[in-house]
Amino acid sequence: MVQFDRKNVEAVSPARRQFLGYGSAGLLAAFLPGCGGHDDHSQSYQQTIAMGQQMMQAAVSNPSRPVAAISVAMVKGSTIVWQQAFGMASVPGQVSATPQTRFNIGSVSKLFPALAASILVDRGLIALDTPIVEYLPTFTMLSPEYAQITTRHLLSHASGLPGTNGRNLFTFQPIAGYAADTQAELANSHLKHLPGELAVYCNDGFTMVEQLVLAVTGQSFVDFVTSAILVPLKMANSSYLTSVPTGGSFSLPVANGTQYQEFVNAYATGGLSSTPVDMMNLAQMIYNGGVFQGQRIVSAASVAEMGSDQTKNLTINPSPEWRWGLGWDSVVQPALNAAGVLGWEKDGGTAFYTTEFFVVPQSQFALMVTGNSGYDARTIAETLVMSALKEDGTIASLPPKISSQAPPVVAAANLSTSAGVYGNSDSPYQVIAGSNGSFELSQWDADTRGWQTIGTYQSRSDGWWWSDADTASYRFTVVAGKDSEANPYNYRYLMKRVVPGAGYAYLTLPVGQQFAPAASLSNSWQQRVGSQWTLTNDSPSAVPIAILGNPPAFFTTLSELPGYILYGNEDLRYQLFTLVSDTLGGMSVKIPGNFGRDLYEIRFSTTTATTLTVGSSIYARI
Fold this sequence. Notes:
By secondary structure, the chain is an alpha+beta fold. Helices cover about 20% and strands about 25% of the residues. Among the domains are: about 110-215, no CATH class; about 415-515; about 525-620, no CATH class. The chain has an eight-stranded antiparallel β-barrel. Strands 24-25-26-27-28-29-30-31 form an eight-stranded antiparallel beta barrel. A hairpin with a 2-residue loop joins β11 and β12 (about 295).
């Protein structure tokens, strides 16, 4: 799922809590990348391959933001027409990457729990629309509506689970038990929205598929996927890193001058270590209707269901171009759709890696790019897919690129009702309405503990507000109605529109939900304002501990928004909490897409407690 950056847009790597952001250049030590690996391709797609080689070599050679290694593979029909690796698998050891070098592919791994569930459907062991409590009676939550969650909800980001269990997600040593820990955490959590009400990117939903597979098969998720999927697909260079590997070639990240091996303990949601070449076997199975090299892995009906639009019955969906599948981020990939081609896309990231996977079923074509974070995987992958489809005649010509030129200014209605603070799972925005129909947009900044201006935006003829200094545009959308429990709702969203990737299509996403002032803080909460808290129950090998040094979290308030607590750190990010009681801060937004993705509840055992829980993490007062 593409994550919108604060001012611009790019596909960035997920961090521990949000699957967002540690893979930036700032975490990689300075090094001199080389061009390792080799190519192995036929005489087809020569223009696309040459373009790709230039783009990827430039990425690993960029002195200002070097990327250690990138690997790519492309398949047409049953023939892999290109496989190549660039850069170094081990920078200190000067070991060149090859097409057999494994990378952690992050959320592209979500296709495997979706496929595993599809196989269980084929075997008659589960049904997609049966509540999972029928198969997993030990699953429970504080919100009674948890009993409505189905496997379809888990696989299409519509379950309402809070987001991501952050504890021991990314580590430098393997840690078992993450899925069971997640289920235990959920037993003490509320839903953030009703099941099926909206779709917001949710890692915990896929983690719960691990528990579901174990309950109905008696096999661990890792064992089931290995025997039912990886072995028959001959994905010999793919596995879940449940222990320190004793063989094989791995891309090894470097941070602060030290080389590590990254372990992703959330297996179903992001834990597969693989190669683009191996993933081309999965692609062939997908566009061959569940069959690979004569062996049926899953039914054609289940493959089609994975690729069907799961958003049609959502209650709240202000961004209709986001078409989730089961496991897929998009089953109507926007750039390909602009060219009149149906394509499926899944992206992924971990603390150190970024991956893009495209499948174009009717053309029997697929491509995957994976590498150390710090490069624009979406732009490279989307550019190459579009070029290849033009080169093989699938499309006659490339669609026009979206113009970044702002349209003419037009008169706008009064924006006073749209002014105010907008919360999300990242960091609040503030909208200040101008006298001429314009507005100033700022975002709260942790370093200064204040608002940093993004820009001033004016109403334009296309119905959006633009700044001449920003290619992104904004507008406001109100969504109102009654939910499935007959409760009325009315949400005002700040919508952001960008042109990511190769530039062929707009993407819109709500990035904030408007808040109304609440009652004054109680004395218990006032006593916590300004306090700092440190994480106590992560492994010492957890990435935020080892790399970030366990940054303290803190409580503060916004003078512009009475009655709420702002809590977080650079790992958690900064969320506004609704104060449910003197000991509970609740989730405060319902935002589809990405910016409501990883929400938390903060709990104290007593009003004077010096420890608090955030999900399954425990913090102590400093």
